[in-house]
Amino acid sequence: MTVATQTANDIMHARKSVRKYKEGVVIPREELLELISDATSAPSASNLQPWRFLIIDDAEVKKELFAIAYNQEQVQTASAVIAVLADVDMYEKSADIYNQNVEEGFMPRDVADSMITNSTKTYGGLPLEVRKNLVHFDTGLISMQLMLLAKERGYDTVPMAGFDKVKFAARFELAANEMPVLLLPIGEAAAPAHGSSRLKAEQLTRFI
Length: 208
What we know:
Elements: H1 8-14, H2 29-39, E1 51-56, H3 59-68, H4 74-77, E2 80-87, H5 94-103, H6 109-124, H7 128-152, E3 156-157, H8 165-171, E4 178-187, H9 201-204
Antiparallel strand pairs: 1-2, 2-4, 3-4
């Protein structure tokens, strides 16, 4: 989809949570993968990139998801639903990540080895609840990037935390270390989203 050049500010203000989608619009899987690839520039703790994705674009599977998502219609009518998952054992990929840093010339071998050791020891030694909080925060960062990048491409989205996460994990056979965080329907709006007000910056900010 060809989109006129927009500033980041334009895209941020144009993005709205859309719940009415044109049915039958297909977003190629290659484009969805490109969207995720671009979004992975998001920051994360120690660059451990705990986000994982499950893209649901099959109509029959979306019908099942509809019930899990408390019968919210956008789950069925959107082109696809990107389920954003968080890996609570994200430190187990530290070797893959830091070895790639060496291969791509971002850091010397000794620094990478130190980062692998420290990341494994530090994050592996944290209580599960602490790791859940860390990866939940990081997946929030990439989710926002996904929404803005989708808007830049001419698609709309709506972030959904309201779904049965236990049933979702069971239906889609998530690994024990994977935690469902967010459902992100994506597609072409069938009706404009409602406008919404924002508190003024002066009401939210203190200078010291």
